[in-house]
Write the structure tokens for this entry.
Amino acid sequence: MSQYTDYATSHMDKAIEALKGNFSRVRSGRANAHILDLIKVDYYGQPTPITQLAGVKVPEASMLVIEPWDKTSLKAIEKAIEASDLGITPSNDGVAIRLPFPRPTEERRRELAKECSKLAEDARVAVRNVRRDANGKVERDEELPEDEQTREKKAIQKLTDSYVAKIEELLKAKTAEIMEI
């Protein structure tokens, strides 16, 4: 591998990892602790992630249980979840917070599938931008002969095609998970 394909591979890997992270935050009717990753709780004046304040458990497929280590933070965690755009009403029993995940309707599942398609398209665009940048680096390298530049561009294009195929596989798997009844 050359420095150009190494560059493209490392940046395309980042696009795939970002897509996986985005997919993990999409609600699919199953309880998933990653949904809480972006929610910050005001804990003694500091915005703190829920995962740093509490243990998050999945006792069953449609329920998340959040057990804070400091019981005084229960109200703050509950308030942060209510203020987020999760669309889930937390229930506080004084010891833990329970988040029930209702099964999405057919219409909601279709909306989620469209949202995933948009996330996948954003990842495809990111991969194509990396290809463009790598090709630009190849073209700007004056020490590289023309036939070597062509070879490098073909290798970068082949790499791009393989990453776009990976994105399609991830999208297909996530869509199947969402549409599952």
Remarks:
- The chain is about 60% helix and 15% strand.
- The beta strands are 40-43, 46-49, 54-60, 63-68, 91-92, 97-100.
